[in-house]
Write a structure and sequence with these properties.
74% of the residues lie in helices and 0% in strands.
Length: 164
Amino acid sequence: MLTAQGELYEAESLLQDCLQVCKERGELWVSSHAQWALASTRIATGRIDDALQNAREALRIKRHFHDTLGTLMALETAARIFVLSDKLTLAAQLLGALQQNWKTAGLPQLGAPWMTEEHNACMRDCRQRLGELVYKNAFEEGARLDLDEASALALDDPDAPDES
């Protein structure tokens, strides 16, 4: 909420406090949500590398819990980060995987207007910058990935499918 209101530094401070409490108590599930939220805050403050670290940490934890919705949300954020960091083929693959995998979880982007707007903007930017044919090929390649494969790809896991 604070991030959406533009209170970025306050949001980051509270999320850091949350992560500290989670660490002290051994709480992982809440920590994964805080990592995901912190990634969005760091995107908004232009710290893309830090945002990627947070999104990946959220994904690692969410995989552990088989948190389908949380994984999809973290992958949405990762796709946006990859567009911002010019890893456009990877972003297009994740966008394809997201389209397929949201179908198993219910409404794409949970039906939330803000998530849908961010998703659509990410797709438009990625398609425009890659070009229609390259985007389409990468998107279709990603559409063949299940949730675990898409997560491995976003995590740069050595067992992830090839990006080429």
